[in-house]
Design brief:
single chain; globular; Alpha-Beta Plaits; about 20% strand
Length: about 190
């Protein structure tokens, strides 16, 4: 059995499923994701503007948990949770009932540093058109996305990207000030 390592997971939803509002979908999914390991830490729920602009706002969150699952098995388990919540993969960056992204698994780099760097440096135009056909770790957009970094800073501020050497907090602080525009923690209801 493998030694448990920290897994970082981003959660998001901007579509109801079976009458369940996005915030409740994310909250329920957090329990499902937490069952994949131990010691789960969860961020607050955040409201974030849709990307690309024009769709309904998202509810985003982040989790840190310890798991002994290998990366491919963890990703498959996350996809199974998405499917239970009605996730359909029909439009890149389209509205969704649930989106679970495996952001990082310890300091693992997949499939290798060169491939991760290519995907991390992909131009914005190509990002909207191309998706990798294999698991890329750390997630190649982690350093660019305020809606990932703000919640992630609540559960793993000191996690350090193994290739670029910056912590989550460093990456969040490096974003342009308007990157957080329209984002806010949701009030507990």
């Amino acid at each position: 059995m493998a030694e448990p390592v920290p897994a970082l997971v981003a959660l998001g939803s901007n579509m109801s499923f079976g009458g369940v509002a996005p915030a409740d979908v994310v909250a329920a999914a957090m329990k499902d994701v937490g069952a994949l390991g131990c010691g789960a830490a969860t961020s607050r729920l955040w409201r974030s503007p849709a990307w690309p602009p024009g769709g309904p706002d998202y509810v985003n969150a982040a989790m840190r948990l310890e798991t002994d699952l290998p990366p491919e098995a963890l990703l498959a388990a996350l996809h199974a949770i998405e499917e239970r919540w009605g996730r359909e993969r029909s439009t890149r960056w389209g509205a969704r009932t649930l989106d679970l992204d495996l952001l990082a698994l310890g300091d693992d780099v997949r499939p290798d540093a060169a491939t991760q760097t290519v995907w991390r440096n992909l131009s914005p135009d190509r990002q909207g058109q191309e998706a990798p056909d294999q698991l890329i770790l750390p997630h190649p957009r982690i350093q660019d996305r305020a809606f990932v970094l703000a919640p992630l800073a609540e559960v793993a501020p000191d996690w350090r990207h193994p290739l670029i050497g910056r912590t989550v907090q460093d990456m969040l602080d490096a974003l342009l000030p308007d990157a957080l525009q329209g984002m806010a923690p949701l009030a507990k209801g």
